[in-house]
Amino acid sequence: MQPWTTKIATYNLPKSNPKAIPPQLFAVIAAEVINQCDAVDGVSDGIVSAPDLCQLDLSVLHCDNERANASACLSSLQLETVEKIYGDYYADGKFAFPGLEVGSEAQWAFLLGGDAPSTLGDGYSQYFLLDDPNWTWKDYTDDIVWKADAEDPGNCTADHFDRLKAVKQGNSKILMYHGMADALIAQRSSNVFYDRVAEAFGGQHELQSWFRFFLVPGMQHVTGTPVKAPWYFAGANSQGVLGTDVYSTPGFEDAQHDALLALMDWVEKGTPVDQLIATTWINQTVPSSGVLRQRPLCPYPQRATYNGIGDVDIAESWSCKIWNKS
User: Fold this and answer.
1) Cross-referenced InterPro entries, in alphabetical order (predicted)?
2) Per-residue pLDDT for 190 more than 80?
3) Structure pTM?
């Protein structure tokens, strides 16, 4: 992953290059993504819940397009940069890592907004992989990916999928989740991981008794949302955003609304986690401000689907279903 962290930044560097997209235009791209992709899931709520089904066409932002705002438009080279950001990374013709997801633009500044890549990527190559503090992103080549793959410094590459047999055989359980608006770690990397675990075990049906994966529409990296999406379900590292004295999901301290309590019930009572209910508040980090929205999170590959009746901001108006992409 960390070589990709450097690679994706190079798409938008150096800032003087005509291909580079100024950070102030990230919001323009985000707004057009919402405009085109929001309603793909059947509900216009400002949340991109089905980015894989959206046929995004950003040519409307081209500076030659009569509809474009001349002070907030993209050149042909900049549109090519956007395509690279969304696109999967192939190193020497082989798949290396997926690109950022449509809907993640509000957090692009972290990896794409600086004058150099994030130190998460460069530091990995300098100090873990190459032991060369003088190495910089300008020295980057695709060979870095395969050197990291071969040497695996720190033994941190998670590709020995069969080793998870110990989890299954030990009656342990795994709940994995990923925010779909995450722009620090590409969301589709979790899809790839889960799919490869499934392949190693004979299909997704072989995982359902011990390993379930939940996508969280509108949630950024670990916590928070730029689009008022239900994002909170007492996941790892999220409670501290609400305060150091917060327990569970305030006002909803049960296994339906709390991932840890749900995991405990799965292990201790044998109750599968068929859904989690995510919450956001009027002030998204102040529960006392009142609930704004709640919505179920569904085990992959199911998706939260509006029932067609009822308030779209309450969980009971939604069901978990598998969509036919055709």
Assistant:
1) Tannase/feruloyl_esterase (IPR011118)
2) yes
3) 0.95
